C-alpha cells in the first residue's frame, strides 16, 4: 500500500437489490432519483457510507433500505463489487451491491407513503429509464436468487412470519419460473429443520391449511442437489 | 445518493489471498510491509485502485499480484468486502478481498528475487506478526477454497500446464485435508470435460503416467454433489 503518496480515491457506494414477491410477481424496490446524476431516473436504494454512523457496509445497506421502507430486510447478503471509470459521470466509481429479501406486507404501508420509492415488477424494468448500470446489477441479483432458490429455501424471507406451504410453493414457483412438485418441497422443508408448525390454521380453498414459521435459531440449509423440476 | 454534500470517504483497498500448493503444503503469498501502518508485519499483496491505470478492481488485484510475482494468477475471484472503523489506524476502511490460485512453478523464480514477498504455509501464519485483519481474511479464503474443492476441480489452477492425475489428486488432498478415492476423481475429470489428454507421459513411481492439460475454452464445472470422502 502506498504510504504517503496522494491517492485519487474512487467514489465508493453501497447499493441494494431488494426483492419481494407480490401477486405472483417478482418485484424490486426502485427509487426515483431526486438529484444528479441520472435525476428523475429509477435507481437502486443506496448511497455512500456514513463513516460516523455505519460500523460496516452491511449497516450502510440496512440504513439506506430502512430510509426507504421503514424496515430492515429479512435477508441480506453481499452480491458483488462492480467498478469502472465510466459507470458514474462523477468519476471512477466502485459499488458494493447487496441482494436482499423482504415480505411485501412488512413494508407495503411505508413504501406507499414514500413518493419516490416503488416496487417495480422485474419484467417491466426495461420499460423504465434506469440509472447507472443498475439494470445489469438487478439482473445479476435475479440470477443469484434463482440459483439459490434451487438449492435452499431462501424465498421464505419473502413471506410473512406465518405462512402456508402453498404460499411458500407459490413464491418459489414465481422465482424459478417453473412449476414445482409439492412432495419434493415437503421433503426439503422437513429435512431442513428450519421451520416449526404453528398452532394456527387458516382457511385456504375451502379447507384449513397449516401455518408454519421460521424457527428463531434457523440456519439457512443448502441442499446438495438442486430441486428437481 | 447525496449530491452536493461533502462526504468523508472511507479508504478503499483491494487485497488478494493468493494460494498455491507446494511440497504437499497449502501456502499463501505474504508481503513484508515496508511502510506504516504495520511496518515490518506480513500482509496480503494489495493496495489502492489506481484510477488512471485500472479499469476495475479485478485489474487492481492482478496488477498488485503481478508486481510481487511477475505473473497474473491462473484463477481470481471476489471473496468478500470487509469494512469497519477500526481495521486500519488511518481511519474507516473498506477492502475488497480476492481469492486467487497459481502454480508454484510459474512464479517461484520471480518471488525468490523479491525480498519482501514470501510463500508462507497457512499452518504457520499464527507464528507471524500479521497486518490489519489479514489473518482472518486468509482463513475466510481457505474455507472458500476448501468448500469449492468439494464441488469443483478448481485446484487444477495450482498445477503447471501439464499434470498427472496423481498430482491433481495430491493437491486436492492437501486442500481438503482428507484422502480421496482415485476412482471418484477420475469420474469427475471425465464428466467435467474440462481437460484433454496430452500426447506426453512422464515417469512416475516406476511407470509412465499420462499428462493432462486444461482445455483452452474450459469452463469450471460445479458438480451437484460434494466429493465423497
TrEMBL record, chains A, B:
Q: InterPro entries given for it?
A: NUDIX_hydrolase-like_dom_sf, NUDIX_hydrolase_dom, WH-like_DNA-bd_sf, WH_DNA-bd_sf, WHD_NrtR
Looking at the record, the residues that make up the Nudix hydrolase domain are 10-142
Task: Classify the source by domain of life.
Answer: Bacteria
Checking Gene3D superfamilies in the record gives:
Nucleoside Triphosphate Pyrophosphohydrolase, Winged helix-like DNA-binding domain superfamily/Winged helix DNA-binding domain
**CDD domains associated with the record:** NUDIX_NadM_like
* Protein name (database record): NUDIX domain-containing protein
* Native source organism of the sequence: Rheinheimera baltica
Amino acid at each position: 500500500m502506498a504510504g504517503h503518496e496522494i491517492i485519487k480515491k474512487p467514489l465508493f457506494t453501497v447499493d441494494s437489490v431488494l426483492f419481494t414477491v407480490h401477486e405472483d410477481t417478482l418485484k424490486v424496490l426502485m427509487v426515483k432519483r431526486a438529484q444528479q446524476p441520472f435525476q428523475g431516473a429509477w435507481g437502486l436504494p443506496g448511497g455512500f457510507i456514513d463513516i460516523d454512523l455505519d460500523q460496516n457496509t452491511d449497516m450502510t445497506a440496512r440504513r439506506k433500505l430502512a430510509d426507504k421502507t421503514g424496515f430492515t430486510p429479512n435477508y441480506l447478503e453481499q452480491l458483488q463489487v462492480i467498478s469502472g471509470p465510466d459507470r458514474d459521470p462523477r468519476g471512477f466509481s466502485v459499488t458494493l451491491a447487496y441482494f436482499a429479501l423482504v415480505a411485501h406486507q412488512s413494508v407495503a404501508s411505508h413504501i406507499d407513503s414514500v413518493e419516490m420509492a416503488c416496487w417495480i415488477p422485474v419484467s417491466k424494468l426495461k420499460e423504465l429509464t434506469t440509472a447507472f448500470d443498475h439494470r445489469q446489477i438487478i439482473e445479476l441479483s435475479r440470477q443469484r436468487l434463482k440459483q439459490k432458490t434451487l438449492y435452499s429455501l431462501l424465498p421464505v424471507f419473502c413471506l410473512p412470519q406465518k405462512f402456508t406451504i402453498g404460499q411458500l410453493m407459490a413464491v418459489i414457483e414465481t422465482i424459478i419460473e417453473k412449476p414445482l412438485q409439492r412432495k419434493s418441497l415437503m421433503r426439503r422443508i422437513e429435512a431442513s429443520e428450519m421451520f416449526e408448525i404453528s398452532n394456527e390454521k387458516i382457511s385456504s380453498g375451502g379447507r384449513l391449511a397449516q401455518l408454519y414459521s421460521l424457527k428463531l435459531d434457523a440456519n439457512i440449509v443448502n441442499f446438495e442437489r438442486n430441486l428437481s423440476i
